[in-house]
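Q: I'm a student working through a structural biology exercise. My instructor gave each of us a protein and asked us to get a predicted structure, then write a short paragraph describing it. Mine is DUF1326 domain-containing protein. I'm not confident about reading structure output yet, so if you can add a plain explanation after the tokens, that would really help. Here is the sequence I was given:
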Amino acid sequence: MCGHIEEGNFNDTNLDGLDWAVLMYWPGEVPEGNGTQQAIIGERADPAQREGLRKIIHGESTAPGATHFFVYNSTMSTVLDTLYAPIDLSIDVDQRMASLNIEGLVESRGTPIISPYSGKPTRSRIDMPDWPHYTIAEMGNGNTTARAGVELDLKDSYGQFNVLHMNQDGVIR
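A: Happy to help. First, here is the predicted structure for DUF1326 domain-containing protein. I'll explain a few features afterward.
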């Protein structure tokens, strides 16, 4: 999971323009827990921004169950130290395209689902008006290789693209 904050704050700390990624692994189904998580925050964040974004990503400053960060973190038995590194991130939700490169740690690409009938990109989305994760998500294809504390090799996997407006109480609708 990764994201770019166009505009936002953590209390009085401005988070505009920051990028982040979270690597997560579970040995079984997510609700069964026992997951491992590692956050990576763009290195240009100053100390206050790093701490604010770390707290958000780990669901530490939210109403219980109000955000996907809280929900995912509640399934983790191992939370690795947060890393700080240059993040090269590009996301186009409407086109279902994304590219993430954190040199030596993560390379990930998101692309549209291609119709087996027409050979053209197809659109599929999920509306979740009462869900803590998002309101609308576009589906896509994902490929990720990660070599940080969490190692992943995902080929033609689930990809999801969304715009999220949230605060400590969850998604702002």
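A: Here are two points you could use in your paragraph. The chain has a mean pLDDT of 94. Residues 2-171 form one domain. It's a good idea to check both against the output above yourself.
Q: Great, thank you!
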